[in-house]
Amino acid sequence: MVLENRHLSLREVAHDLSVSHESIRNILHHQLGMRRLAARLVPRELNFLQKNLRKKVAEEMLEQVNSDPSFIQRIITGDETCVYEFDMQTSQQAAEWRYPHEPKPKKPRQSQSKAKVMLLVFFDYRVVYSEFVPNGSSNVMGFMKEIDTILSKLEEADEHVSDEMAVSKKMDSWEKDQARLLKIVEEMNSGSSNSESESDADSAENNNSDSEDDESTTDEEYEAPEEPENDETWHTNTTSIRNFSFDADAAGILLDIEENVSPIQVFEKIWDDQVMEMIIKSTNDYGIKLCNQARPHTRHSRKANFKNTDMIEMRKFLGLCLLQSQLKFSSIRKLFSIDALHYHPAFPSQMSGRRFEQILRCFCVEEENSNDPLRKIKIFLDLLIQKFANAYAPNEALSLDESLLLFRGRLYFHTYMKGKKAKYGIKFYELCSAQGYVLNIEVYKGHRENDENMTTIESLVMRLMQSYLNKGHHLFMDNYYNSLPLSNKLLSKKTHVTGTLRVNRKGLPQEITRRKLRKGEHVWRRQNQTYVSKWKDKRDVLCLTTAYHPSMINTANRRQQEKRKPIEIVNYNQNMLGVDRADQMMSYYSCPRKTIRWYKKVIFHLLDVAVWNSFYIFKEKTGSQMKYIEYREAIIRSLTGIDNKRDGRTLVQFKRAQIQTNEINNGTQHFPEKISPPENYQRKTYFQRCKQCYKQGIRRETSYCCKNCMSKPALCPAPCFETWHTENNV
Question: Of 532, 542, 555, 562, which has the fewest beta carbons less than 10 angstroms from its beta carbon?
Answer without folding.
Answer: 562
